[in-house]
Amino acid sequence: MLVGEEGAGGARHRPRHAAWHPAARLGHPPLQATGSSPPGAAGNPTRHITTIGYSADHRPIRLIVIGDPRARHPALVVGCIHGNETAGIAVARRLAAGPPPRGTALWIIPDLNPDGVAAGTRQNAHGVDLNRNFPYRWRRQYAPGDPQYAGPGPLSEPESALTHALILRVVPRVSIWFHQPQGLTDGSGGDVRIERRFAALSGLPLHQLTRYPGSATTWEDHRSPGTTAFVVELPPGHPSSAAVGRYAHAVLDVARTGS
Q1: Structural domain that includes position 241
Q2: 99: Cβ contacts below 8 Å, ≥ 6 apart
Q3: In the chain, what is the greatest distance between 2 CA atoms, to the nearest angstrom?
Q4: Bond prior to 100 in cis (omega within 30° of 0)
Q5: Which residues does 214 contact at the CB level (< 8 Å), separation at least 6?
Q6: Count of domains in the chain?
Q7: Would you say residue 5 lies in a domain?
Q8: Among the four residues 41, 56, 76, 153, which has the most C-beta atoms within 10 Å?
Q9: Does the pLDDT at position 1 exceed 70?
Q10: Is the dihedral of CA 17, 19, 20, 22 positive or negative?
Q11: pLDDT tens, position by position, 193-245
Q12: Residue 206 buriedness (CB in 10 A; 0-12 / 13-18 / 19+)
């Protein structure tokens, strides 16, 4: 079980890198996407689709890995963690369908909260806000039924637990978590130069939002010094194709910068 790798007292340490392959890192057999290059093909970037777990209502959660299979400092993109903030899914899908980045790899979870997306709710099927369920400074917040209910304990939810395990294994150099609807790039506590670069390329100005106990990016930035996890708040509504392309370009740029 990977969830317990943090150690007593939340001690920070970098886990050793396993082989690049999703099957080796996660213990799941890869599902090769149609038209993707075979694993290990010389000079060919690869594209793999893997089910890394299931939601509280047993919907599959997919991981798409594209790019250089030898990359040791990949980037993570989470398209949606709140089920009523879905614009980032389009960006994640654009990245997954586009040309693989050179010199790095993207680990993409288009939809971390499929139960919330299906129901149109911020929370998962257990009524938990997944972005209050990560272990750093987790505390009991609100009551069941509140949109920001933090759950009965840290990593109580399958969606947050599987992402926690993935991040501990992969240790992404840059992680981007899409939200809505504020239309900004959050200075989330990592390398502000990367956040500022994303803001300039995306047209989403840099601001600092409130640091909430149990949030994913706060946990990541605390857990792995030298990495940068940050929130991107997309504008309300469904983004245009041009906007999706602009955001995807910004992701690729900072992913290469961070590698």
Answers
A1: 45-258
A2: none
A3: 54
A4: no
A5: 131, 132, 133, 134, 135, 136, 137, 138, 139, 141, 150, 154
A6: 1
A7: no
A8: 76
A9: no
A10: negative
A11: 999 999 999 999 999 888 888 899 999 988 888 899 999 999 999 999 999 99
A12: middle
Indicate whether 127 belongs to any domain. yes
C-alpha 191/C-alpha 251 separation (Å) is 15
**Six token digits for residue 252:** 């690729």
Reported as a single tens digit per residue, the pLDDT across 139-181 is 888 889 999 999 999 999 999 999 999 999 999 999 999 999 9
Q: Enumerate residues 6+ apart whose C-beta is below 8 A from 97.
A: none
Distance (Å) of CA 115 to CA 55, 82, 86, 90, 123:
7, 10, 12, 17, 8
Tens digits of residue pLDDT in 92-123: 999 999 988 888 999 999 999 999 999 999 99
Distance CA 170, CA 230 (A): 17
The CATH code of the domain that includes 89 is 3.40.630.10
Structure tokens at 185: 């790039």
User: Does residue 79 contact residue 116 with C-beta atoms inside 8 Å?
Assistant: no
Residue 204 lies inside a defined structural domain of this protein: yes
- 221 in Cβ contact with 191 (< 8 Å): no
In a domain, 25, yes or no: no
